[in-house]
Write a structure and sequence with these properties.
six-stranded mixed beta sheet, transmembrane, 8 strands, Rossmann fold, 279 residues, transmembrane helix, two-stranded antiparallel ribbon
Length: 279
């Protein structure tokens, strides 16, 4: 069924070959039994919330298993593609690729800009960021072709959406974009995020709930992600506060609960929302 859908939408042959090789591999479990999938799951609050409402799914993050879940390697990437194909039509796939090299805060090191979004590939962390973001595109495409709802999350200011493969993704799939504040869900910092999804209802619901946060509300958040200081020449500089930045990478429990409530509402509602030309 998956291969037929891929052929219908003229998917590149290499991706079809990948899916066939994975399906023919008898060493890994197959079947369609997942309600959700969370990749780059961190503390796994979304997965926890999904399971709390009775959904079955999988969490994948290098912190859970450094060998099995290293998505820069072929085996972990194959595992992720297999898990996508195990999801029931209409299921939710959440993707939050590593943003360290994609953040504008490190653009002077990464070499990323609007003109050079792929950055200085002489640095390992830039190459890793490019690899993970590229593989996220393939996962999102496969999810869409399988009739799943995907959400890609990044901090506001990430260069992710400006990468060539994401520009291509937006040209072949109907992808909606939105902005939200994680502070609305009880995060220690207000931190604005960008969301991309092939499901407009998901984005509209999230942005209606957390698309705005007043200055007064933001001031109540205790964690400050940036600190200002004066350098030797008397200029005001900014630098990130590492403990707060690291903690802000994890979703608060309330955000996981909110996503789970939407997923539960959409459970069993299948649809295929593609803009690819089929002629």
């Amino acid at each position: 069924m998956v291969v037929l859908e891929l052929l219908k939408y003229r998917v590149p042959a290499v991706i079809i070959l990948l899916t066939l090789l994975i399906q023919w591999n008898q060493q890994i479990p197959h079947g369609i039994d997942r309600d959700f999938m969370e990749v780059f799951s961190g503390h796994g609050e979304i997965s926890r919330a999904m399971r709390d409402v009775g959904m079955a799914g999988t969490s994948i993050d290098i912190c859970l298993d450094a060998k099995a879940f290293d998505l820069t390697g072929p085996s972990a990437f194959g595992l992720v593609l297999n898990e996508v194909m195990r999801c029931k039509p209409g299921s939710t796939v959440v993707l939050a690729p590593d943003c360290r090299s994609l953040s504008k805060m490190c653009r002077h090191t990464s070499g990323r800009s609007y003109l050079t979004p792929m950055g200085n590939r002489g640095y390992v962390f830039v190459r890793v960021g490019n690899t993970l973001s590229g593989r996220t595109v393939i996962v999102a495409l496969l999810a869409a072709w399988c009739g799943l709802r995907f959400i890609i999350e990044q901090p506001d200011g990430s260069f992710l959406e400006h990468l060539p493969h994401y520009q291509w993704l937006f040209s072949v799939l109907k992808v909606y974009a939105g902005t939200m504040y994680m502070g609305v869900f009880g995060s220690g910092s207000p931190k604005r995020h960008r969301l991309f999804s092939n499901c407009k209802y998901y984005l509209d619901t999230i942005c209606d709930r957390a698309g705005y946060m007043s200055r007064a509300e933001q001031s109540l958040c205790s964690n400050k992600l940036v600190k200002k200081y004066i350098d030797k020449s008397g200029k005001v500089r900014c630098s990130g506060t590492k403990p707060a930045l690291k903690e802000s990478a994890h979703y608060p429990a309330a955000f996981g609960d909110f996503l789970a409530s939407i997923a539960l509402e959409l459970r069993g509602v299948t649809w295929l929302n593609l803009s690819l030309e089929t002629s």
